[in-house]
Design goal:
Blueprint: H1 5-17, E1 36-40, E2 42-43, E3 55-58, H2 59-67, E4 71-75, H3 81-88, E5 93-96, H4 107-124, E6 131-134, H5 136-146, E7 152-161, E8 164-165, H6 180-188, E9 192-199, H7 202-207, H8 209-214, E10 215-222, E11 227-234, E12 239-242, H9 248-251, H10 263-280, H11 290-296, E13 304-305, E14 314-318
Parallel strand pairs: 1-4, 1-5, 5-6, 6-12
Antiparallel strand pairs: 2-3, 3-14, 7-9, 8-10, 10-11, 11-12, 13-14
Helix pairs in contact: 3-4
The protein binds 2-acetamido-2-deoxy-beta-D-glucopyranose (NAG) (5 copies).
One 2-acetamido-2-deoxy-beta-D-glucopyranose (NAG) binds at residues 160, 189-191, 260, 262, 264.
Subcellular location: Secreted, Extracellular space
Enzyme class: hydrolase
Main location: secreted
Length: 319
Amino acid sequence: MSLPVVAVFAALTACLFCGPPPCAAGRNEQLNYRPIIGVLAQENLPGDQSPHGSSYIAASYVKYLESAGARVVPIRINLTEEEYTKIFFSINGLLLPGGDVDIETSQFTRAAKIFYSLALKANDAGDYFPLWGTCQGFQQLSVITANKNLLTLTDTKAVTLPLTFTPAAKSSRLFQSFPKDLMQSLADENITSNFHMWSLSTQNYSRNAKLKKFYKVLSTNTDGKKEFISTMEAYRYPFYAVQWHPEKSPFEWINKSGMNHSTSAVRASFYTARFFVTEAMKNHHSFPSPVEEDQALIYNFCPVRKGIGAIFVQIYYFD
Ligand SMILES: *[C@@H]1O[C@H](CO)[C@@H](O)[C@H](O)[C@H]1NC(C)=O
Ligand SMILES: *[C@@H]1O[C@H](CO)[C@@H](O)[C@H](O)[C@H]1NC(C)=O
Ligand SMILES: *[C@@H]1O[C@H](CO)[C@@H](O)[C@H](O)[C@H]1NC(C)=O
Ligand SMILES: *[C@@H]1O[C@H](CO)[C@@H](O)[C@H](O)[C@H]1NC(C)=O
Ligand SMILES: *[C@@H]1O[C@H](CO)[C@@H](O)[C@H](O)[C@H]1NC(C)=O
């Protein structure tokens, strides 16, 4: 996509005033009040006894983004690079959800890599395009950036934790506009949902030059033995990653430790979602026509109700 000269000029002048990176366009531009965020599907969970398709998106990620003022486009796995490129230039941001696929060999990974590389190129050219990774999405971003799987096993399968903020958190793009009392709740109360076996340890992050250069650590946690990174944002790109699950507090109801539905947990969810949607509002990609936009939106699909005790309440399936 070639940018008009005016946009490039705006991006360059914006850079003179925007202080810390990222310096990509968007800061002083008009916002897009009809943001559309892509959510990437993935191969079914191995334990899914009643699938209605061969890939899925948990409905909670859709509701999470919708609750903060975005519309959602599901992105299927197994598409061609050309198809992904077309979608990329139609949407305003991408969310990589949690899940349980092989983050080196899956179709989810293949698609994530294509979008990551398109997002790098776009942002470098002043076309602000945000990425968000949750849990598996966090892990996937770390593997793509490092070009290596540096994850390690931790005892964090179903536990709520308070965030241990780094000094960088307060002035981070992600957290800087969170209310003070909410930051206090996040730091003091066990409200972030952790449902993961794998983590990026602070040790491996620190020893990997690529990761260290790319991401700023905003919070850490520990399983009692290993310290791992729980929130990070890229220095020079609008890329964000949380190892915890902000979408679960308002939208998932499995009765397990690791879940919390308190006021502060639900507020934290909303503020993270609203932050990302606001990032997507700085992007101006659009579908080639209103009809194509309409056909791509999640409203064309019906989520399937999962049974009592399932980890997800509702799932969108795709073939
Ligand atoms: C994706 O392609 C693989 C083969 O490469 C196939 O096994 C799988 O069923 C496909 N999944 C979807 C959702 O199309
Ligand atoms: C560091 O990464 C390697 C994989 O490259 C992994 O085997 C190891 O467990 C990790 N160590 C820690 C402490 O994270
Ligand atoms: C609360 O968080 C602490 C770590 O700060 C952890 O040790 C503890 O297990 C957590 N409690 C619950 C109920 O998850
Ligand atoms: C949740 O699970 C606990 C036991 O693990 C049980 O005592 C409680 O009744 C359950 N609550 C609901 C609403 O199912
Ligand atoms: C959820 O977190 C709140 C703190 O905000 C705590 O008081 C409450 O006990 C937690 N509930 C559960 C079920 O862990």
